[in-house]
Amino acid sequence: QEQLVESGGGLVQAGGSLRLSCAASARTFGTYGMGWFRQAPGKEREFVAGTSASSIGHNIYYADYANSVKGRFTISRDNAKSTLDLQMNNLKPEDTAVYFCAATGRGRATSRAYEYDYWGQGTQVTVSD
């Protein structure tokens, strides 16, 4: 059983930055593919970024991003600390949403929400004009 707790959300002006963190409880964190999703009011939950469990280099993990955040957001993980981060730069009002951390036992990054087994409660990000 994996428990996920997000933090770091808040209110920021357009063009600003925020860093979201997700703390995981399981010692098996390093075996999970991890992702960030978001959901704006009246909209479906959408994929933001994902990272696979296995590294492709020293502390380097495969990552995938939604087109809308490429070049602005960076996902990272620290398996030793069981944490997942999302660095968000150059934020736009359309980034306003509740952001969720998720874990998949498949071990690979995936943009499909139904492939994730565990979800956090979410953290609110609001970007003002």
From the structure above, extract its key features.
129 residues; single chain; mainly beta; seven-stranded mixed beta sheet; four-stranded antiparallel beta sheet
What's this, in brief?
It contains no helices and eleven strands. The chain has 129 residues and is mainly beta.
How many runs of DSSP E, i.e. beta strands? Answer: 11
- Main beta sheet: 7 strands, mixed
State the end-to-end distance. Answer: 40 Å
Total helical elements: 0
* Radius of gyration over all CA atoms, rounded: 14 Å
The general outline is globular
Point out poorly predicted stretches.
Answer: none
If you average the pLDDT, what whole number results? 95
Percent of sequence in beta strands: over 45%
Q: What letter string, H or E per element, gives the SSE order?
A: EEEEEEEEEEE
Structural class estimated from helices and strands? mainly beta
Percent range of helical residues: under 10%
List strands and helices in order, with pairings:
Elements: E1 4-7, E2 10-13, E3 18-24, E4 33-39, E5 46-57, E6 60-65, E7 73-78, E8 83-88, E9 97-104, E10 118-119, E11 123-128
Parallel strand pairs: 2-11
Antiparallel strand pairs: 1-3, 3-8, 4-5, 4-9, 5-6, 7-8, 9-10, 9-11
Characterization of the model:
With 129 residues, the chain is mostly beta strands. The protein contains no helices and 11 strands. Strands 2, 4, 5, 6, 9, 10 and 11 form a 7-stranded mixed beta sheet that branches. A hairpin with a 6-residue loop joins strand 4 and strand 5 (46-57).
